[in-house]
Amino acid sequence: MNFEIIHLPKEQWKGKVIPMEYTTEEYFDVTIAKKEIGFSVEMEKKKFEKPVHHYPEEYDFPDKLYEDWWEDACAWGVVQEDRLIAVIETAPEKWSNRLRVVELWVAPEYQKQGIGHALMEIAKEQARLERRRAIILETQSCNVNAIGFYLHEGFTLIGMDTCCYANNDLERKEVRIELGFFREKKARLAREQVEIREEKTEEYHQVERAAQEAFWNRHFQGCNEHYLVHLLRDSEDYLPEFSRVAVIDGEIVGVIMYSKAWVKDDEKVHEIVTFGPLCIKPEWHGCGIGEMLLQETMKLVTEAGYPGIVIFGEPDYYPRIGFKTCDNFGITTADGKNFDAFMGIELIPGGMKNIKGKFYESEVFEQSNDKEAENYNQNFSSLKKQYFPMQWE
Which sequence spans correspond to the domains of the chain? Predict the structure, then answer.
């Protein structure tokens, strides 16, 4: 079956009832026994004497999209001829940095066709983009098919509530089960495991592909950073002597590109540098490769005599390397603003002391328009554009 997963905007889909209906012949029997030194909990799959049917009308609160208590929820689904046939809804649990799957439903006649898996991949990608440490969800001990699906998707048991729906959930064989999916955390690599060097001409396409994969759907649907890499190489402001790629077993897994930048006040123009993009392929996140690229190239920039670096970047990442917001240096953007993502670092002690004013980067950053980037995408195998709630637009 061919299907397209689309974003379901809150203003259009809020209050949509999800017909959570299923028939089951099995259940997981939950038994809790108090022991002298604690408790024992067991779950054993058993058969009902006759099939049990659950349907929306038996509950006081049927499942609906965008309920008020789910803050910052977001839903995606498959719609055919104005009929919703599948949906997933997520909501961030900010205090614990987890992502909760609030709803996941596929119409019975469309099950076992890969739609549920594709919807769950949306949640996993959202968790990756937002750097959530886990995905969690609720199901019931009698929904054996759903539990089997979630286990196949990599979830595991993380808890239960034996009186969530009624005080006799254990006797009714409908216990709330909490399942969790933990994103794989790769070990940090040693410096000798990563080759860091200048890129080669024959690697241009591979470097651009790495940039595309790293930024795809992060800031908006699709990305244009790979096209910016292409443009930078032909810019007179590009600084290849500082730019580097990270290579593992012959594969380009990361890249950092430097270019000239300036801080201007009423009397003087100060030349500094900036970098961007700095990107690591998604499957290599958390291995320390970005920090390796930064430390090695910042040393080159320092040795060349530049006093500092100013960037636009992720405010939850660069401060760990020593970057500070630019208001600490008396530097603003070209339009006189300061914000968390506008940061700088002093490479030489006291080197930025007398550098104050407005920051300007190369004009090449203004040349990368969406239409041209879209045309440039034809040089690469296609990646699916998708809406995610943390995107800028």
Answer: 6-182, 191-379
Task: Report the predicted TM-score, pTM, of the whole model to 2 decimal places.
Answer: 0.90
Q: Which of 248, 319, 315, 250 is nearest to 284 (CA)?
A: 248
In whole angstroms, how far apart are CA 194 and each of 198, 205, 259, 295, 385? 13, 20, 24, 13, 31
Digit-coded pLDDT (tens) for 233-257: 999 999 999 999 999 999 999 999 9
Q: What does the pLDDT read at residue 59?
A: 64
Q: Which ranges of the chain does DSSP label H, i.e. alpha helix?
A: 10-13, 115-129, 144-152, 169-172, 204-215, 225-232, 289-303, 370-376
Look at residues 60, 90, 22, 55 and name the one whose alpha carbon lies nearest to residue 386.
Answer: 90
Q: If you average pLDDT over residues 169-195, what whole number do you get?
A: 93
For the chain, how many residues are written?
393
Residues paired with 254 in a beta bridge: 246, 280
Which of 3.40.630.30, 3.90.470.20, 1.10.10.1020, 3.30.565.10 would CATH assign to domain 191-379? 3.40.630.30
Q: For residue 218, give the 3-state DSSP assignment.
A: coil
What are the CB-based long-range contacts (under 8 Å, 24+) for 325-333? 326/359, 329/355, 329/356, 330/355, 330/356, 330/357, 331/263, 331/355, 331/356, 331/357, 331/358, 331/359, 332/357, 332/358, 332/359, 333/358, 333/359
Q: Is 280 helix (H, G, I), strand (E, B) or coil?
A: strand
CA distance 287 to 184: 11
Q: How is residue 24 written in tokens? A: 């089951």
The fold of 6-182 is Aminopeptidase (3.40.630)
Reduced to 3 states (helix: H, G, I; strand: E, B; else coil), residue 319 is helix
Contact 43, 52 (CB under 8 A): no
